[in-house]
Amino acid sequence: MNEKLNITALGPYIGAQVSNLDLTRPLSDTQFEQLYHALLRHQVLFLRDQLITPHQQRALAARFGDLHIHPVYPHAEGVEEIIVLDTHQDNPPDNDNWHTDVTFINTPPAVAILASKLLPESGGDTLWASGIAAFETLSAPIKTLLEGLHAEHDFKKSFQEYKYRRTAEEHQRWQEAVAKHPPVQHPVIRTHPVSGRKALFVNEGFTTRIVELSEKESDAVLALLYAHATKPEFQVRWRWQPNDVAIWDNRVTQHYANADYYPARRVMHRATVLGDRPF
């Protein structure tokens, strides 16, 4: 049996497509090792025609580590580790901004796995950007400036209160999530715990300020970094088909879910693997 994966790079900095792998079946150690090394190298991997159930998606994600249970998003029936991202006329998209998932906790996710379940006729692409490429292309003086700095990440920046007032129960869940998730600090430049590569680790979704700088300095530096990190050169864009799966290294990437399809409906399932404290 041939267990060698076909891995095709989609660009020099980020993204690869994986073929001849069936995610509905348990991966052998050899297959998983190849997948993991490809993820470290390419930062986001794409697979077509993977009709995985929430239970299978959870099992695959658990190979990478312990799973996160999201404080506000709904989950698949009977599988609380799989969140359901269901956008439609009565539930507008809220992830059409550049963000790294769940950086508002002390140990942000290491890996995420997203499966397409229902797609609009057109639109709804997702873009990923490489934080490694963003860091490596900065000038030496800017790298030196950023090396010792820390940024604050806040749950409330992306999950604003007004969005969660439709019912008393929803508002209470939001208030409990805020109480459980005070702002946290992470280094502006993080080191990948496995590869040792350095990456820019700020994102518009959750980063509020650089703590060592004045407010105006922080705003100016963050504006520069947000614009730099999301240059088209550092991106890969995926045009979803039904039953596609994307697996990405959340430690060194950010992503943007294009909301051009709204108010059509789009349903995705996501599993999120807990990471370690950024350093």
Automatic annotation (TrEMBL):
Cross-referenced InterPro entries:
AtsK-like, TauD-like_sf, TauD/TfdA-like
All residue ranges annotated as the TauD/TfdA-like domain in the record: 7-272
Molecular functions per Gene Ontology: metal ion binding; taurine dioxygenase activity
Q: Which domain of life is it from?
A: Bacteria
Q: Does the keyword Zinc-finger apply?
A: no
Broadest EC class?
Answer: oxidoreductase
GO biological process annotations for this chain's record?
sulfur compound metabolic process
Q: Which Pfam families match?
A: TauD
**E.C. number, please?**
1.14.11.17
Enumerate the UniProt keywords alphabetically.
Dioxygenase, Iron, Metal-binding, Oxidoreductase
- Give the UniProt entry's GO cellular component terms: cytoplasm
Instruction: Report the cofactors.
Output: Fe(2+)
Q: Which family does it belong to?
A: Belongs to the TfdA dioxygenase family.
The record's NCBIfam families line, in alphabetical order, gives: PRK09553.1
**Name listed for the protein in its UniProt record:** Taurine dioxygenase
